[in-house]
Write a structure and sequence with these properties.
With about 170 residues, the protein is of the alpha+beta class. It has helices at about 10-40, 145-160, and strands at about 40-45, 50-55, 60-65, 70-75, 80-85, 90-95, 100-110, 115-120, 125-130, 135. It is about 30% helix and about 35% strand. The N and C termini lie far apart (about 95 Å).
Length: about 170
C-alpha cells in the first residue's frame, strides 16, 4: 500500500481556483448567448427618422415605455412604424390576446452628428444641418431663440407650401 502525501494549502487553493475557472467557462457560452439575444432585441433608430419593423406574430397590444423617446404606429399590413422623438432608450413590449408577453425589445434613439455643425456661444447652442449648404435645424438642446426662429421659419414655409395654387393632386 502506498501512502500519498497530503497536498498543502497552496495546492488546494490552486485546485479550487482551477475548478471554479472550469465551471465559469461552462457558463460563458450561456452569458454570451444571453448578451447576443439582448443585442438582437435592440432596435436602433436615428433621431428625426422612422424605421419599419415587422410586428411580432400574434401581437394584439403594444406598449412603449417612454413615448417621448419613440412612438409606434401599427399599419394594416403588420408593420410597425417606429418614429424617433428624442435621444435615449425605451422599451417596446408586444402582448398576445391573453395579455402574455410575446416580445420585448429595447428601442435606442441616437442623435446623428454626421453632416451637422453645432455652434456654441458660451452656453448657447445652435445646430446647422450641412447637406451640402449649412441651414439651421430644429434640435433639442439648442437655445430658445435659435430653436423658436427655426420652428417659426419651418412653419411659415409649410404654410406657404400648403397654400400653393398650382399643387398637383397625387395620382393613385
Amino acid at each position: 500500500m502506498m501512502l500519498m502525501p497530503m497536498p498543502g494549502r497552496d495546492v488546494l487553493r490552486t485546485a479550487g481556483l482551477l475548478a471554479l475557472a472550469v465551471l465559469a467557462c461552462g457558463f460563458v457560452p450561456h452569458a454570451a448567448l444571453a448578451e447576443e439575444k439582448r443585442a438582437s432585441d435592440t432596435i436602433l433608430v436615428s433621431l428625426d427618422q422612422a424605421k419599419l419593423v415587422k410586428l411580432p406574430a400574434g401581437a394584439e397590444t403594444i406598449v412603449i415605455g417612454n413615448p417621448t423617446i419613440a412612438d409606434v404606429a401599427v399599419q394594416k399590413n403588420g408593420v410597425m412604424v417606429i418614429t424617433a422623438r428624442s435621444a435615449g432608450r425605451t422599451n417596446f413590449i408586444a402582448l398576445d390576446s391573453s395579455g402574455a408577453i410575446i416580445s420585448e425589445s429595447v428601442i435606442t434613439v441616437t442623435n446623428p452628428t454626421q453632416g451637422r455643425v453645432v455652434v456654441l456661444r458660451g452656453t448657447d447652442q445652435s445646430t446647422y444641418d450641412c447637406a451640402p449648404l449649412c441651414l439651421p435645424t430644429v434640435t433639442l438642446g439648442d437655445d430658445e431663440k435659435h430653436f423658436n426662429r427655426s420652428i417659426d421659419q419651418v412653419s411659415r414655409r409649410d404654410g406657404a407650401t400648403n397654400q400653393a395654387p398650382n399643387a398637383a393632386p397625387v395620382k393613385k
